[in-house]
Predict the 3D structure of the following.
Amino acid sequence: MFYEPLKGHGLPHDPSKAIVAPRPIGWISTVDGQGRINLAPYSFFNAFSTRPFLVWFSSEGEKDSATFAEETGEFVANLVSRELAEKMNRTAVDAPRGISEFGYADLAMAPSRLVAPPRVAAAPAALECRVTEILRPKALDGTSTGAVVVAGEVVGVHIDDAFLNDGRFDIVKAGNVGRLGYMDYSSVNEIFSMRRPRWEKE
């Protein structure tokens, strides 16, 4: 089949998120200027540079995570392990502002070192970030999409030593969770390696 997104796909469910998958989940913790704490998962999340270490997440609308990050200039991206998947899902609730999803999902907080927002204490890894840019992408016709993209430089990295194996972060042990589309998720339980090829002139 072929379809043009603006004209609709004719399927019972939108395939777009299932096609661009799996997507890592940025479990974003933020705090506003009044000290109110927010925790929410974003599957439009990824790293896009190593030097400097930059990550971003996209909010479809002006939600608390993007609003708080823009207000204070900081956020933490917590890694979702398989063991934390159900609690992560609970933090996706549309709670009123001022209600901490940490408490709602029965999650312990841990202090960050360099930024104000707390970390998810049980997360295998967490990235402390300072905002570098806020982007509001436009559609082809120049109208607003409503999306808010928050980019940040990672200024501190927390890794639970239990997930380090011979100097490498053990992705399988953590069972990194990704969003697949619809209501589906995956966790890493198998990996394979391939070396990048070197050009050899024939």
Observations:
- The longest strand covers residues 147-159.
- The chain has one domain: 23-184.
- The chain has five helices and 14 strands.
